[in-house]
User: Fold this.
Amino acid sequence: MLVSEGKWFTLTFLELEKGLSMSYRGRKVACAASGIALAVIGSSASADFVNPLVPVWRGAANADFYGWEIFTSAFGGPNIPNYAGTEPGAALFNFGAGAFINSAGNIQATGSPLSMTVYAGAAEPVAEVIVNIATIGTVLNDNSLILGLYNNSGGGLTVSPSMMELRSDQPTADGQGRVQTRMYRWIVPPTGSALPRFELNFGSLSGGIALDSLSIDVRYIPAPGALALITCAGTLAAWRRRRRD
Assistant:
């Protein structure tokens, strides 16, 4: 069971079998809400990212990439990654009341701020996380960005971003808001073991904002066996180069 801003949200394998089945690096991950239907809206995003930070390790064996550009549930229901090249093992929820899916497929907040949580799995210790968020209207609350890594008993740690950067900032067409892409980066302190529950929380300062796109890149510390294979592969490659020379 996970807690986010006083709201308990349960992820169970029973709900997984009833609702949504996702794989995480070959493993099954429970990210479903019992009794919540997944609506499908086939519109396209209008702004997308502008100058996002794409890590050089995206696509590596010890990394995962989750991306959203179309959202299907405005409140309380799972939004599944759908960006090109994304992994399926995460789900995004908005707990800010009064939001709706606009014609561009964005989560549009009205009177209340956005209150977002992403749940995912982490089979190995997390080393680094990079998040890009594209919004239209009012702006994000930078202080709301919290990364949580938890064990199955609820213990773990929460980490604030070690780096924040405004990657793009333009006025909206009516001049009443901003079209922004913001980047947040976490360097996670060593935990000694995998904390299998990954949770990212963020929100806006007020209503009048649309979440347009979101990307999450996660880099893991390889397990000892995988690290040995990487080291051996590097040694073999170096030996072959020396033989050619």
User: Anything to note?
Assistant: Helices lie at 13-18, 224-244. Residues 1-46, 225-236 have pLDDT under 50 and may be disordered. The first helix runs from residue 13 to 18.
